[in-house]
Each structure stands twice: as C-alpha cells, then as structure tokens.
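Usage

Read records sequentially. Each one opens with the input sequence:
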Amino acid sequence: MGISRTLQRTLLVTLLASAGALHAAVPSPRAHFGFDIGDDYMLANYTQTEAYFRKVAAQSDRFRLVELGKTSEGRPQLMLIASSPANLARLEEFRGISERLARARDSEQVASALAAQGRAVVWIDGGLHANETVGPHQLIETVWQLASRDDAETRRILDDTIVLLVHANPDGQELYSDWYMREPVPQKRVLDKPPRLYQKYAGHDNNRDFYMAALQETRNMNLAMYTRWYPQIVYNHHQTSPKGTVIVIPPYRDPYNYNIDAMIPVGLEALGAAMNLRYLQEAKPGAVSKRGSVYSTWWNGGLRTMPYFHNMLGVLTEITGNPTPMQIPFLPERQLPDSNLPSPVPAQTWHFRQSIDYSLTANWALLDYASRHREQLLLNIYRMGRNSIARGSTDNWTASPSALARAGELAAAAAPAAKAGGLSAAQVGELLHQPAQRDPRAYIIPADQADFATAVKFVNSLQLAGIEVQRATRAFDAAGKSYPVGSYIVRADQAFRPHLRDMFEPQDHPQDFEYAGGPPIAPYDSAGWTLALQMGVAFDRVLEAVDGPFAALPIGQLQAPVEQAVPASESGYVLDARANDAVLAVNRLLKQGLEVRRLPARDGAYWVPAASAQAMTAALRGTGLRAEPAGNGLEGAQLVRKPRIGLWDQYGGSMVSGWTRLVLENFGFDYEVVYPQQILAGDLRQRFDVLLLPSGALPLPAALAIEGKAGRAAPVIDPATVPAAYRDRLGALEGDAAVAAVRAFMEAGGDVVATGSSSGLAQLLGLPVTNHLHGVDAGGKVKVLTQRDYYIPGSVLQVAVDKTQPLNWGLGPQLDVYFSDGRWDNAPVFDLPAGSDALRPLLRFDSATPLRSGWAWGQGYLQGGVLAAEAQVGQGRLAFFGTDITFRAQTHASFKLLFNSLLRARNQSAPAAGEG
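and closes with the structure output:
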C-alpha cells in the first residue's frame, strides 16, 4: 500500500527537524570550555576534551565514540568516528570492506564491487607532541565543525567518508595545558617546558615508536589502524614550520624508501596539490613542501611514515602557532615564490586561531579529496596490496642503491657501451638478477633459538603492525633445514610486504650529499633500523615458497611463549644467560629474598637453589624459559644482589633516560631517579650501588668528537620561572664538580654505567682514553675528521665481543648494535693503550665494513676502534659505552650489556650452597 505524498513530506520534515535538533543540541566549544578554540592565551586540557568528546558522541547522530585503550598514565585514549547517520548504521560493513581491500586477497572484479560500495576511511589525529598545542585543539574544532556544519560539502564528506578522529597523547595534553594555564594572568602565559616528559617514557620520541610499539598509546593506535580500520589516508598533525612559512605540506623531499609502492609518493603529490590549491583558493599563503623542509619518506616508525609501508597515504603537516601571539619573521629568502613555496607569507603577528583555521583548511582539503576520489582510494590500496602479493610470490629483485652502484661499476668495466645504455637484457639480468640475490618468499623464526622469548616480542611487534604471521603446529622442513614446532613463518606474499621487508632486511640508504664532495644531507631520523637485527632475532631467509603444518595467527593477537614446567632437581636450577627474560625471573626471585648466583664457567648462567622450585615457577611465568637441573659445574658461583640503582634525569625530562626507565621496569628492576643537584651533593654511595648516566647526562668532550659534534650545552632555565616544588630538578652535570662527585661515588665502591655522550666521563676521569676517529692530512699530521670524511647517522653496525669479560656474558662473539649517542649520530669511538690493566675493552670494531643497515660514510675509520670498555676506579667500576645500548627500548640485542652491568657481583667468588 503506497504512502501519500502529504505523509511523505511530513515524514521528511520531521526527519530533517530531528537531525537539525541533534546538530543544535551539540554544545559549541565556547559553551563547553568557556572560550572559543583558538582564542589567544587559552588551552583546554584532556579532562575537558574527553568530556566534550563524550558529550558530542552522546548528542550527535554523526558520531560514535571508541576507547582505544588506556594510556601510560591510565587515561582513556579516545577515537571519535564521524560519518553520516546512514553510514554509522552500517559501520561494521564498511570497516570490513576497508579491511578486505587493504588485505587484497579478492579478485579485481570483487575489489571493484567492494570499492563501489565502500567508504573512504580517513584518519585525522592530534596531540601526539603535546608541546605542539595546535594539534589537539584543531581536533576539538574539527569535531565541532563536523557536528555542526550543514553545508553541501560537509554533508557530501559525511556521506562518502568515515573519519577517524584520534587523540594521540591524552597524558601530554593534560600536562602541557595545565602547565600553560597555571599563570592566572593570560597575557603572562608562556609555553615553556614543564618539569617532566609529556609522554611518560618517551616525550617527543613517542613518534619514533610505531614499528616497535613499546608504548601503550602506540599499541592502541596500531591496533586501530592496522588491524581494524585500515585508513587510506592518515593525517598526522604537527608543529612547527620552517621560519618564514606557515605550514609544511606534502610532497616531501627525497629519498623515499625503495620498499614502498610507487603509488605512495605519487599519491602524496595529489594530496599535496589538493591542499595547496585550497590554501590558495582561501587566500592563505605560506604552505611549503618538497625541499622547502627537512621531511622525507625514507624512515619507517613514525605515525605518518609507517602507513607508507602499509600502502596508506601518510600526511604530515608542520604548522606554526602558539596560544601566546607570536611573530612570523621577514626572511628575504622566503619571499620569492618557487615550486617549494608558491605563495610566500608576509611577516606579521600570528594568532592561535589562524593556525586552527589553517589546520581546518588542510583537514577539509583531504576530506574533500577523499570524498571525490573515494573509489580510487579504495582501489589503490587494493592495487598496492596486490602488487606486494605478486612480488612476494614470484621471483623478484628489489633495487637498492648499493646493488645498483655495484652493477654500474661492473657494467662499466665489462662493457663500455653500458655508459650509453647499451647493455642487453641478458647482461642486465646477469648484473642485477642473480638467483641467490632474489627477495625471500618467506622468513622463518626458529623456536629453538637461545632467546626465543625475545623473538616472540619481535613477532608481537609484527602482530601490532598487522603483519600476517603463521605458527608451526608441528616440526617441519624447509629449504633443507629442520624447524621445531612453535616456529614462526612470515610469508612475503601479503599486502603489507613493504613493512615486513623493512623489519627483516637491511636498509641501504643512498649516498646523499649536498653536492659531490660536499657535506651529507642528514636523513630525517634514522638511516637504518632493521628491527630483527636490533633485537638479535635469529631468522632464515627462504627463497622458495614455503608450505607446511602452519596455523595463521589471528591478526593483532599478541603471542606468549609456551610455559615450561620446572623439573625436579636436587642440585638447583640454571637459567640461560643468553635469554633476556632470565633477568626478569632473577629480579622476581631477588625481590622475594631468594638466593641467586652466576656461573662464570657457564657464560654467566644463573643458578637458583633446589628449595626454590615453587618460587622459580612463579618467577618464570610469562617468559617461556626453561629452568634446567643444575648438575655439576657450580664452582666459582658469584652471588647476585638486588642492585640499588640511581638513574640520572633532568628538569623537563630526558628521552634517553625515559626509555631507560621503561627498559628497567619491563625487566623488573627497581630504581630511583636522581637529578644533577642530588648527584653534586655527594653521599650517593649510601643510597646506590649503581649510577646510570645515559647519553645527555654529561656533554661529550671535544677531544672525543669529530668536527662540530662536541657535547650539547645544558639548557639554561631561570629558577624564578619554575615552581618551588620542581627547582631541585634544575642544574646540570658539568665541570670539575660533576666529575669529582661521580669519582667519589666510584672510589667508595659504587659502579657507574655511562652511555653515549656520557661515556666521555672516562676521559674526564683522567683514564688513558683517546679518540679513535681521526685522519691524517697530506703532510702526515693527525687531523680531526669532518662530516665530509666520516658520517654515520643512526644505523646498525656490527662489533666484536670480548667473551673473556663478565659484562659480555650471554652475548655471542658478534653483536649488532644501534650506533647512536641516543639521538641520531655522534657516537664516540675510543682508542685504549695496549695491554692496560686499568682498561678492559668490551666491544671493538674488527672490520673495515661493519655496516649492517643504514648509511656509514667513511666506515673504514672505525676499524680497530673500541666502542665499549670497563675500568676500575677506586673500589668501584666504570662501564662506558659509546652508543646508547637501550635505544628507544628497541635494542634488545644489547640489553644484556646493561643487565650485566647492574647485576655484577658485589662479592668475591664464593661457593654455592651444597659445595665445598
């Protein structure tokens, strides 16, 4: 029976009125916060923002609220999903379409049908770096605009897209906004540094965690992005732009990572054009791109860069702005239009609302693009996934700078005609397509490796990144090798192949210089980071297709090692020191007051008395470690005591110290943070057995640095600007007073562990340590190296391990280390006097080509140099490491260097119980 036209009109009017009432019911920011977003001198904290998001979700039919998880400090991390009411009613259907297209297992015909039905998914976040206050506030304003706007464009956007509005760092917004707003007089408010990091452990480095996912907030976002929603566009808001500009937009400068699909950089060109054009249409000058800024698409691991390795278009903007009005300066070189900066911005006073408006323009440009190109975006992520599956299931050779350079040299030597491009296809194949050099079809992680628990943690990082992983349900053979049950198989024929290659294979950074013979162009962040190498995971590259008794792991499901029963034993139990989690078990036992000893004859294995079987079972929970009956060979056992650890930090927080805190907590160490004033005051030995001085605690002496790379000056902070409760955190460790305080601690029997720049303490103490990194000029005189001679930004290098030293217990004869002082470069390398009893080398470069992953210009200078050593100072000891051995909580392979330094015996050798 039909419905009369009058009734139809009545129903339509009623529905429109209801929708209008819902939009009208959503409170404006002014009604909720008491000010408009973008008002000068005003910031909202996260408590207020969370309440607003919950209110909008409850009162608008355009939103759904999702709690992604808890933050490091226990706050809910929220995501608002915005779309039309009709789309929200079918939300799971559209999410499923996005996932199927991203996984790319369907036929082209099915994919086309899915793309026609689907909705483009766009991720917009804010607040990751809490001192960049535009980010969370543009997010609030975007929520309000999507809730309240009723223009044709916004309705079309809501019809065609699903918008994921993600708060990236709730804890940081709470800290920074409250800190700024503490000043009661608005005009006196200054966006200065609060007393601690704005992410509990990482601060600014929270945007360096995405492939490792060591932080809870990262895990929350990775699971949403790579295992649930699979957005085609990921927009990551940041600050600040280069001086004399307003905002950095895509595209970005070269190099881009050769593992990612070619549609990524081309897609970024299209998005950048859409953003730039909209800025010009709205008379908003100052957008800069390409070589107008430092940002590239080489590095993996950031919120906007890891999406490239998942066939998603990651957009970064860096905008100027401050809640306190600021100045855009006049810079003549920024006033002439070019392709990087087509519309220069005049010098002016800049207000916070202008930055919010620019951010909204960028958001709407991307949302408009996603709406107009909905099917294309959905099909492109599918096509990139299909490309990856094809490359992973057939013979494929990924081009890299070094391989091409070698081929060019061979071609030039073998055939002069090659210079004119005269090589035949067969000759090219001979040079570039050697069968043994083809890309793997799979990677196998054996379950019988010594530190399988760490391998499982590596697998979990892949799980959090949405990588498809299989587990062997029984033993199997592949490529002539046998593997036990429980081994993991990662096949290359999957959509996110670029990411899995980036985690297993070395990065080969181009030789990137300003000009021939000129200075290097610093990469944005690291040059090489291969996670499997950093974590010390044993794996095999398999060049043929692999099949067997494999069960696919549910996407995103974290793995745990299989628990091992503790056997009966009258001689006690031994834990293998090669397994990092043995330290976690040891710390659990020590906290119960149980006896633990180390066995020098067994590479520092841990011995626990037989009476502790029940405690051992509890201590091993979650580790998958096997407690072996001790048997014989307990002579010389050394008592292990629970160490009292002091960890240096500074006002405002040190990221290197923060990451060290996370590692200590993850492995069960108790510690106390100490600030420079407390160290300078002395009497440390009464409180601590070990003092940790991570990179940044002490500046690197100029005598141990290459040209222009001596230690950074400590920030100068006026105590009058700091509340009295935090003034005891001010100050710095520098000069004779700092050296004297640390020396007194060691002379009284304390141990010091110094990393990165702080390793220069060895020279400051007067130990016979010199700089290995020097050259010889034409006249035969020693010269200081420049970056034209030697340049190694953050990369993975291999060193030789002195296995006679207890600090190296549990390590193999070679170790892959991340080479960095805790930030990106400038790790010192030492020369020690031959045959010295005072200094004992721990790690040494024994090769002229130690590069494993990244970029190492002039790496031959490293050969023979010492990266780490130990010295006796009074009754105590100094262990110094030129590199950061806990870098971003990623370098599990070198964690044992820290653990052994902390757990070294405080007693002389003593017989184990039952011996004698």
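Summary fields computed downstream for this record:
- The first helix runs from residue 5 to 25.
- The mean pLDDT is 94.
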